[in-house]
Hints:
This protein is of the alpha+beta class. It has one domain (about 5-85): Arc Repressor Mutant, subunit A (Orthogonal Bundle), CATH 1.10.10. It contains 3 helices and 4 strands; from the N terminus they run E-E-H-H-H-E-E. The strands form 2 sheets. A two-stranded antiparallel sheet has the order 1-2. A hairpin with a 3-residue loop joins strand 3 and strand 4 (about 85).
Amino acid sequence: MTSTVTLISMGRYVIDTHGPEPSYLQLASQLRARIASGEIGPREALPSITYLTGETGLAVGTIRKAIGVLVDEGLAYTVPGRGTFASPRKN
Length: 91
């Protein structure tokens, strides 16, 4: 029996669609790492939903769910009509 692994990698993000971890959690983890490393600085915009859809091939709802995880964790905040931004770092 062979197993097939589907990795979606169209840019900076790699999503294993057949892995044990849901796609939205994989994307949230990769965005979280970019925030933690400072690649996305405090109060800087996260990539837009449109951009992430094009980069990952994931559905808009999946991307919104990933961003929601970061918002729930306090790592990001959303400004209606403007986008989602990395939260200021806590000392």
